[in-house]
Design goal:
By secondary structure, the protein is of the alpha/beta class. The protein contains 11 helices and 8 strands. It has a single domain, classed as Alpha/Beta hydrolase fold, catalytic domain (Rossmann fold), CATH 3.40.50. Strand 3, helix 1 and strand 4 form a beta-alpha-beta unit. It binds D-malate (MLT). D-malate binds next to loops.
Length: 266
């Protein structure tokens, strides 16, 4: 991994392969390792940039609240640090999708295309927001274990839970090792995120919407609504996968990304 100083903090990132930059933005509370089924495979087709967002993985932690706008600005700074001036394909999963919406708002001219995976355009309901703020408090007081055990069963399809318990264990390890300050800061930041529903119709770049067929956090119906609202969007549903579609079915997920990248060249 490379380490770049961006906005006064160190951000760690994978930077592998050549060609069109494909930026893979992880979900909450994870790190770049959720893209382990993509990095080597897709680096044969493009330049894969898979950072650890501020606070996560090997990147520096900042306390308080980290907004989706801050994460998006960090990504723009990271691209500068890596001397990537050409427009990128930005692929974000769940919280990574919230960051992608902010990147579109703030740095849209740097986008060649978007990939929105297992994410939501709507902001939090008052109940969801209150729940997140409570989670932030609990994680700061007791560590992330209660959050982890509440989230884990919702992340994976039934088939993954039965056939690939090792994937669940690896995600559990990442979540448990995440700094509580980073978990709390991102949870508070998600509460503050703007509703992206109204901007969907304005997204003019080619967009791929990807959803695990069994995702219960950002279900296929909700992702279909996102696709329908974006003028140039296609949707791919991934079999045998829940919220963690790239990890659960990398073969289908990578095929969808490759097809999309080929379409961008045409
Ligand atoms: C994620 O996977 O990033 C989370 O489910 C996002 C969220 O909590 O809204």
């Amino acid at each position: 991994m490379k380490t770049c100083t961006v906005h006064g903090i160190k951000l760690a990132t994978v930077d592998q392969g050549r060609g069109v930059p494909l930026v893979l933005v992880h979900g909450f509370p994870l790190d770049h390792t959720m893209w382990s089924g993509q990095i080597d495979a897709l680096a044969e087709d493009c330049r894969v940039i898979a950072p650890d967002l501020r606070g996560f993985g090997a990147s520096d932690v900042t306390e308080g609240t980290v907004t989706m706008a801050q994460f998006a600005d960090d990504l723009a700074g990271l691209l500068d640090a890596l001397e990537i001036g050409e427009p990128v394909v930005l692929c974000g999963l769940s919280m990574g999708g919230y960051v992608a919406f902010e990147f579109w708002r703030r740095h849209g001219s740097r986008l060649k295309a978007l990939v929105l995976c297992d994410t939501r355009a709507a902001s939090d309901s008052p109940d969801a927001a209150a729940g997140r703020l409570k989670t932030a408090e609990t994680v700061m007081a007791e560590g992330p274990s209660s959050l982890v055990e509440a989230m884990l069963p919702k992340l994976f399809a039934e088939t993954t839970r039965k056939r690939h318990p090792e994937l669940i264990d690896s995600v559990r390890k990442v979540m448990l090792s995440t700094d509580p300050r980073a978990v709390a800061a991102a949870a508070r930041g998600m509460v503050e995120r703007a509703d992206a529903t109204a901007m969907l119709a304005k997204i003019a770049c080619p967009t791929l919407v990807v959803v695990g067929r069994h995702d219960v956090i950002s279900p296929p119906d909700e992702m279909r609504a996102i696709q329908a609202a974006i003028p140039e969007a296609r949707l791919v549903e991934i079999d045998g996968a829940g919220h963690m579609s790239p990890l659960e079915n990398p073969v289908e997920f990578n095929a969808a990304i490759r097809d999309f990248l080929i379409g961008l060249r045409a």
